[in-house]
Design goal:
The chain is an alpha/beta fold and about 325 residues long. It is built from ten helices and 15 strands. Strands 3, 4, 5, 6, 7, 14 and 15 form a seven-stranded mixed beta sheet that branches. Strands 10-9-8-11-12-13 form a six-stranded parallel beta sheet, with helices on both faces. Strand 11, helix 6 and strand 12 form a beta-alpha-beta unit. Helix 2 packs across helix 3. The N and C termini lie close together (about 10 Å).
Length: about 325
């Protein structure tokens, strides 16, 4: 098969489409023929040499995919060859085939085509595990989402609205904010022109946000604490604005608030399986009903992953940038 490899870390041009050995599904895994994958910020970090895959996992980028099961590893039940699926991956999505633990498989949701399904696993699992399983966002509470136009942001807006929360977003420019409004965001803040703490307090009569989903990290830490409501929960899932910040513990204590921080990729298999199972139970029915929709900015050929990475780095997109895999050769065909 072929996959996107990274012979040397660097810019987008470091991504090289090359022939590599086919993966073999281990105990409790299936082999998926990839139809599409999606670009995540973590892939950009991996390409630059800053986010190596966990030991023993696929060296190729790609934290999610959609496709069809073409082989079952030992001990697999409940899935069949030919099933249309999407999957949360530890890596290896930028390839024609990938081996996936069964606990990280999801059936293609009703009403979503197989290519578009590649836009769902990472954002659905990230948002559900952080906003709902960890921060326990409740109906009537206010969620602030930084980067409302991102894949994570577009999913967070829709899921929070689906459970009856009020949603504030930050995004860069009126076009992105307009898209966030279309998805249901109530409070729109242009981080380039406005102070999000001030705008949020204005919109909430000084109360602030009950939950903040943050992709920025250190740069926003102090202001996020100021923006939190009493008993608020700040969840940090990205570090685009640095890793070290100063935390005013007095302000945190006065609000009886919490700072939580997570990653998804490095969690053990059983934790990922629990997140995926919760997403299948709670999120998949909302997608099947059309209440929550995948948001895709564009689809690019996987062989042109360089172009896709440039697009994500430029931050001009709304939702997900997908990579369309070329048809993988079958085992009985010469390669």
């Amino acid at each position: 098969m072929h996959a996107i490899t990274i012979p040397e870390p660097g810019g987008p041009e470091a991504l090289v489409w090359a022939e590599v050995p086919d993966p073999v599904p281990a105990e409790g895994e299936v082999l998926v023929e990839v139809v599409a994958s999606a670009v995540n910020r973590a892939d950009l970090l991996q390409r630059q040499g800053f986010y190596d895959p966990p030991p023993g996992s696929s060296p190729y980028p790609g934290l999610e995919c959609s496709g069809r099961i073409v082989a079952l590893g030992p001990g697999v039940s409940g899935w069949s060859v030919g099933d249309e699926v999407c999957a949360l991956l530890v890596g290896g999505g930028y390839a024609q085939k990938v081996a996936v633990p069964v606990g990280q498989l999801l059936p293609r949701p009703e009403g979503v085509d197989l290519v578009t399904a590649a836009a769902l696993p990472e954002v659905a699992c990230t948002v559900w595990s952080n906003v709902f399983m960890l921060a326990h966002l409740r109906p009537g509470e206010t969620l602030l989402v930084h980067g409302g136009g991102s894949g994570i942001g577009t999913m967070a807006i829709q899921l929070a609205k689906a459970v009856g929360a009020r949603v504030a977003v930050t995004a860069g420019g009126p076009e992105k904010l307009a898209r966030c409004a279309e998805l249901g965001a109530d409070i729109l803040i242009d981080y380039r022109e406005q102070d999000f703490v001030e705008e949020l307090h204005k919109a909430t009569d000084g109360a602030g946000a009950d939950v903040i989903l943050d992709i920025v990290g250190a740069k926003y830490l102090d202001r996020n604490i100021k923006a939190l409501a009493v008993s608020g929960r700040l969840v940090v899932i990205g570090l685009q604005g640095g890793v070290k910040g100063e935390l005013n513990l007095g302000a945190l204590m006065a609000k009886r608030a919490a700072v939580l921080a997570t990653t998804l990729r490095s969690r053990p298999l059983n934790e990922k399986a629990a997140v995926v199972a919760a997403v299948r139970e709670h999120v998949w029915p909302l997608i099947g009903a059309g209440t929550v929709k995948p948001v895709v900015d564009r689809t690019v050929a996987m062989t042109d992953a360089v172009e896709a990475h440039r697009a994500v780095e430029a931050s001009g997109h709304v939702g997900k940038v997908l990579l369309l895999a070329p048809q993988a050769p079958h085992h009985d065909q010469p390669r």
